Recover the amino acids of this structure.
């Protein structure tokens, strides 16, 4: 090195990572073997962002300066043989973004020292980088609470003629993570086709966008896990975990040239189905204790209950049957003819019809255990029309005679009263026209009829 034996920069406490708004202090150490004339010794601290359109190119297409400060630690003179130490101190702006190094751009911070020598002499330079970390607090990111979820339905064709459908749904347990945490991925795939699919895959993706005249996108696969295939006509639920390695944060606050995004890509091959789940990676993890309360949690349970209709009244369980008390009914228009039952004679119910107490209308449950259960086997004519003073002959006959002696209550498998005659019996068969009781010979002709 000739006259100059040592020329280096050191930071106090051997510190390498700094935060915005912090001071950076250190020393410039120079050791010479012979007297070295110089015009000045300067120390510079700067931070900038440079991007390009070529991989690993330092000829920046665009640059963005954050700060650039230069101080002179020694004036014009001659450095005597021996060691010399020159201290320095710089204040880092509070808006400086986090350091970053990518294929098409970098955010660089460095301290540079230079010895300016007289004319036609050699200048000496030294450089030492440092790193900036502007922590990203995930609790301050909007819409960060809750899982990240998505769904997609993809139609595809195979064997040149057949078509199929694949339904894919996936979600993560949350939207914000820090390096070292685990991402829990849950995926559900429903193969509505006759062809088995490829393996399901979940990948942690990083997409860096460099804002040049024509934006450049750098896509990288950080981590990847793979599961099984979905068989034809089957449904698969798949759960997996991804550990986050050390990565730069999602938001580079203060930088307008580089944008970083992270997402989970869940995909299938053959057919090609894919969905994305956006996530954030920061430096301060989510504090679940201070999670904002949702609207549903703050709403009392009474406010979620449905309100009763204004004209509806509660009916007690021990209320008398319609045969015991006649309720007052509002006036209604003139009765219409009773519609005929459209049930065919060959209809066979799937279960025995329920037994109703005397006077109860058909289609209403007795015990109240199944209020929504369909009971269309027994339908009273009063269910179709109503008018004060209108009675049906069957109802009058039942009321006069009372229940038959053979009725055994709710445990009887079939109703034995006269109301059963209202329903077409499944045992009634059409007449057999081939029986010998019907005429077999052809009818007489016209002439034979006239002669007789």
């Amino acid at each position: 090195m000739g006259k100059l034996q040592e020329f280096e920069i050191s930071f106090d406490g051997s510190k390498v990572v700094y935060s915005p708004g912090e001071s950076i202090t250190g020393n410039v150490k120079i050791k010479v073997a012979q007297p070295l004339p110089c015009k000045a010794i300067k120390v510079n601290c700067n931070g900038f962002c440079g991007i390009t359109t070529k991989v690993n190119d330092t000829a920046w297409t665009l640059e963005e300066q954050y700060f650039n400060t230069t101080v002179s630690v020694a004036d014009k003179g001659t450095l005597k043989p021996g060691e010399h130490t020159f201290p320095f101190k710089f204040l880092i702006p509070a808006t400086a973004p986090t350091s970053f190094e990518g294929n098409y751009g970098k955010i660089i911070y460095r301290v540079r020292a230079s010895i300016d020598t007289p004319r036609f002499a050699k200048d000496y330079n030294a450089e030492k980088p440092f790193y900036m970390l502007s922590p990203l607090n995930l609790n301050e990111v909007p819409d960060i609470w809750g899982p990240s979820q998505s769904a997609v339905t993809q139609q595809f064709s195979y064997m040149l003629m057949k078509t199929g459908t694949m339904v894919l749904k996936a979600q993560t347990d949350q939207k914000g993570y820090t390096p070292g945490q685990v991402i829990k991925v849950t995926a559900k795939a429903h193969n509505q086709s006759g062809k088995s699919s490829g393996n399901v895959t979940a990948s942690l993706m990083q997409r860096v966008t460099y804002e040049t005249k024509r934006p450049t996108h750098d896509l990288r696969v950080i981590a990847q896990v793979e599961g099984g295939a979905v068989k034809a006509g089957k449904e698969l639920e798949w759960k997996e975990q991804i550990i986050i390695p050390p990565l730069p944060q999602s938001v580079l606050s203060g930088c307008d040239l580089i944008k970083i995004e992270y997402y989970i890509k869940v995909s299938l091959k053959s057919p090609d189905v894919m969905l994305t789940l956006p996530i954030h990676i920061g430096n301060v993890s989510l504090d679940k204790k201070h999670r904002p309360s949702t609207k549903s949690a703050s709403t009392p349970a009474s406010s979620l209950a449905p309100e009763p209709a204004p004209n509806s009244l509660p009916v007690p369980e021990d209320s008398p049957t319609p045969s015991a008390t006649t309720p007052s009914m509002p006036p209604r228009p003139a009765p219409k003819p009773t519609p005929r039952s459209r049930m065919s004679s060959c209809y066979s119910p799937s279960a025995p019809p329920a037994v109703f107490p005397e006077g109860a209308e058909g289609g209403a449950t007795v015990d109240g255990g199944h209020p929504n259960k369909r009971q269309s086997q027994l339908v009273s004519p009063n269910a179709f029309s109503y008018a004060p003073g209108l009675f049906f002959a069957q109802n009058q006959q039942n009321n006069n005679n009372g229940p038959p002696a053979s009725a055994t209550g709710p445990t009887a498998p079939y109703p034995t009263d006269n109301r059963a005659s209202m329903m077409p019996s499944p045992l009634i068969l059409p007449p057999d026209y081939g029986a010998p009781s019907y005429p077999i010979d052809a009818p007489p002709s016209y002439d034979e009829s006239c002669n007789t």
